[in-house]
Amino acid sequence: HSVVRNALFCLETAANQKENHVYTKALLAYAFALAGNKEKRKALLDSLEEDAVRKEDGSVHWQRPGKEPQADLPFHRHRAPSAEVEMTAYVLLAHLTSQSAPAQEELSFASLIAKWISSQQNPNGGFSSTQ
User: φ, ψ for residue 87 (rounded to 5)?
Assistant: First the structure.
């Protein structure tokens, strides 16, 4: 369909920009995963891996540039802003959405992302925002 083709062309143009925001890269990676464009998906995921924040517990997530995470207190664990949870979830979806089954290496990395996302849940199983 011409509408879908034009939309994908627009997304490819955006993906080729030199400096894309990490949130934009996460959305684009997921969009190209859904579209079946393995090359663009891989290129964006490789770029996102360079931007990843790796925690001491092994978990992995992404945060907006210039937004330093707040320190956890002894009896209170800080939860990340909803935009960071959403962005990290899009990266996870991009890793798990492909035309063929994800490779073991990709599943291992995805589990580190899922570990961080699950740590952001509140006591009721939800998140700080509906976003």
Answer: -60, -45
- Contacts with 27 (C-beta within 8 Å, 6 or more apart), sequence order: 90
CB of 35 within 8 A of CB of 99? Answer: no
What does the pLDDT look like over 65-99, one tens digit per residue? 876 655 554 544 567 888 899 999 999 999 999 76
The alpha helices in the chain, defined as continuous H runs, are: 2-15, 22-35, 38-51, 82-96, 104-119
Residues 48 and 110 sit within 8 Å (Cβ to Cβ):
no
Q: What is the pTM of this model?
A: 0.85
Q: Average pLDDT in the 9-37 region? A: 91
Full set of structural domains in the chain with CATH: 2-68+75-120 (1.50.10.20)
